[in-house]
Specification:
By secondary structure, this protein is an alpha/beta fold. It contains 17 helices and 11 strands. Helix 12 packs across helix 17.
């Protein structure tokens, strides 16, 4: 996405309109409609689904229309072309747009996840995994310039692995087709989100040997963001949105994986309950769900380090340029 112009992104905006919807679709007389585009459907985003299902957005006077817009490019395209109001996507996308040049920057205002959400999955069981085992293998990776791939490479380099010299890196498979490609025999290792990783383990198709989230540290990995112009016109509603998210974050922190799974299962109708519980528990255990909506400066700087290590950052974009913490701070003060 970094090398694409904004104009080229807008050309594919029409594709987004056909994405599947969940949640409310019409604005009622007494509620503000907020259209969210999520980069993928994942248990990694459990607090968002909790906020919808537990009625926290409704309590704050909001109707939510949720669209899954697979991939960072499509999600950002939808936001730039006003197909959605708020994007749930990696913070790196806001940096790429800013560095292309824009009069209406994308502002990160509420953090959902604070680690990478992918796991290193091997085709065979490995009792005592060592990162050196990756040398000489074929790795089915994620999109170049996207956070999963960059966090994965960051973790590998930390363990002395050059991902582009020590292994064969496959990066020409679309996000939606990565799991099927591995299942059909492509690659010795793959990088997967939950619940796919747990499903593969249950079916004997692959085995989790490491967590990229644990290895790459805290990052503003998935964040709610919107245009600066939208914030200017809708400060009250952006605050209400952040309040609802914080209520959900508190609820997720206070409840176990089984309770969370029971709430979010309508979004994963084809996934067994035990897989939902196992996946959510993994994320809770490694601290992937942010406990509050603040995108703090230390996490942002770690993000910049990860992008720089991947060779995808033209220049460092400082925290205050694309992050607004005022809504998160006020939510923490007012939501009890």
């Amino acid at each position: 996405m970094k090398r694409r112009t904004l104009a080229s992104l807008l050309m594919v905006a029409a594709l987004i309109a056909t994405a599947a919807l969940a949640g409310c679709g019409k604005e009622s007389a007494d509620k503000k409609l907020i259209r969210i585009g999520e980069v993928t459907r994942s248990l990694f985003y459990a607090p968002q689904y909790v906020a919808i299902e537990k009625g926290f957005f409704e309590e704050e006077g909001l109707d939510i229309e949720l669209t899954t817009t697979p991939g960072g490019d499509k999600t950002m395209t939808a936001l730039l072309s006003n197909v959605i109001d708020v994007a749930l996507v990696g913070s790196e996308t806001s940096i790429y747009v800013y560095q292309q040049g824009t009069d209406d920057p994308i502002i990160n205002f509420a953090q959902l996840t604070q680690t990478d959400g992918t796991f290193l999955v091997a085709r065979e069981k490995i009792e005592n995994f060592d990162w050196s085992s990756l040398k000489g293998t074929t790795f089915l990776g994620q999109r170049k310039g996207g956070m999963p791939q960059m966090a994965g490479e960051f973790a590998m380099k930390k363990h002395g692995i050059d991902p582009h010299a020590d292994m064969e890196m496959i990066q020409n498979v679309d996000f939606a087709n990565i799991a099927p490609a591995f299942s059909s025999g492509t690659g010795d290792y793959v990088q997967l989100f939950e619940p796919t990783a747990s499903i593969f383990e249950k079916e004997g198709k692959g085995y989790v040997v490491a967590s990229f989230g644990t290895e790459s540290g805290h990052l503003p990995y998935t964040v709610f963001m919107t245009k600066n112009s939208f914030i200017d016109k809708n400060e009250k509603h952006v605050q209400s949105f952040t309040n609802a998210l914080y209520k959900a974050q508190k609820w997720v922190e206070e409840n176990d994986a089984a309770a969370i799974a029971d709430v979010v299962k309508p979004y994963f109708e084809n996934v067994d309950l035990d897989i939902l519980v196992n996946s959510i528990d993994r994320y809770k255990q490694q601290g992937s769900f942010a406990s509050d909506p603040i995108v703090d400066e230390a996490e942002w700087n770690n993000l910049l380090d990860v992008i720089t290590t991947a060779g995808e950052l033209e220049q460092r974009t400082e925290h205050g340029t694309l992050v607004n913490t005022s809504f998160a701070e006020k939510a923490i003060e007012t939501v009890k």
